[in-house]
Amino acid sequence: MGHDKKRKDWGHQWQPQRQSGNVTLKHSGTAEALVQQVRQVIEAHFGFEVGVVVRDAGDWQQVVQQNPFLDQTEHLHVAFLGNTPSDSQLKALQEAPIGEDRWGLKGDNLYLFYPDGTAGALLTHAVLEKKLKVSATVRNWRTVLKIRDMLLES
Question: I need a surface site. Which of 3, 101, 110, 133 has the fewest CB within 10 A?
């Protein structure tokens, strides 16, 4: 299905980000309403349900500014969480065997540092969702910065 048809269905001005799983769009409603609308459009067009996480341009800039691993961005990723984990959920993540991998939580964004890269990482997307019991989408730091720059230009 072409992008023009999808744009009409969504009723918003939007731009897909190539090969990243990200879409940027202009929307005047609530984040919750947008999440539901995006889920419905994806399910209608592709036949499956996905978790959707929404951040606005200000949130995205804050993600960059709050990075607790400023000097270690080569192997850095950010997990954008569907909601802020509870104390018991965080405890479950703290107790998980994650080897040398490290993480830092800022609100509903979990910064993930993989000192040896992601190939043998133990702190995986599946571990995050299982321990935290929230939907998450993970992006590497280069993608985070590219999207931030694009949002600043718009």
Answer: 3
Angle between helical axes of 141-153 and 57-65 (0-180°, round to 10)? 130
CB-based contact 75:115 (threshold 8 Å): yes
> Letter for the amino acid at 152?
L
Taking the C-alpha atoms of residue 83 and residue 33, their distance in angstroms, rounded to an integer, is 15
Q: What is the DSSP string of 112-126?
A: EE-TT-STT-SS-HH
Hey, what's the torsion of the CAs at 36, 39, 44, 48, to 10 degrees? -140
Could you give the 3-state DSSP secondary structure of residue 100? coil
Helix, strand, or coil (residue 103): strand
89-118 tens-digit pLDDT: 999 999 999 999 999 999 999 999 999 999
DSSP reduced 3-state for 98:
coil
Domains annotated on the chain, with CATH: 3-46 (no CATH), 57-153 (3.30.70)
